[in-house]
Amino acid sequence: MNVLEIIDSDDEDNNRPQVQNNTSDDRRLENRSFWKAGAFDIGPTKWTPSQGELEHARVHPKFLHSNATSHKWAFGAIAELLDNAVDEINNGATFVKVDRVYSKRDNSPALLFLDDGGGMDPDGIRKCMSLGYSTKKTNNTIGQYGNGFKTSTMRLGADVIVFSRANRNGRATQSVGLLSYTFLRRTGQDDVIVPMIDFDISKHWSEPILYGTQEDWSTNLKTILEWSPFATKDELIQQFEDIGSHGTKIIIFNLWLNDR
After folding, report:
1. Which of 154, 175, 8 is nearest to 81 (CA)?
2. Are 200 and 220 in contact (CB under 8 A)?
């Protein structure tokens, strides 16, 4: 690892974006204190298996908060994210960048973690953003975006969006995933839903990768645009510009304002 760059965008002139609209309160939780964010009642389960569908284990969004309480202090969560990025040395990473940035949607502060490691392909980002999975393979790695990713990001903010580019077996891809406690709470979900979209960029343009229907893909995109700091598909795609041909960018937003 050649560079660990920790900067504050406040040091750069005119770095704050213009606020696009004034509806951002609908995309925030009523209580911005981390230790109180899990204090809500759980309603009845909405989902029942349809004919021919197997019942499966479900994880209530409240678990995202209780899981994150393993980090008593916010700096412990930051350290874990840095450790995960440093693990990417094994995949050729040469730098890790940590920055405070600002949301284009409402000008609120966010935390950015960027590395130029191997990145995650569509399968990898799903393993990263699911619960209870780790890609740790050697004694030299700490987590590589396993459960620690969920505990650390959810300890720092209510929401996180992940951008990753990778090249596996000659196929170049870029993926976006949104883990949003705000979305889950505001829409009354009783299971952790993580909208994701993927693109094949092997031919130097972005071609959507479909695992279901085009409508499914478009619904995931719509949800990401509604609940992330990025209001358009073009803004979303622009986030890959500083990643290069491979690497991962994590943006944690709707940061918790205090500890108590």
Report:
1. 154
2. no
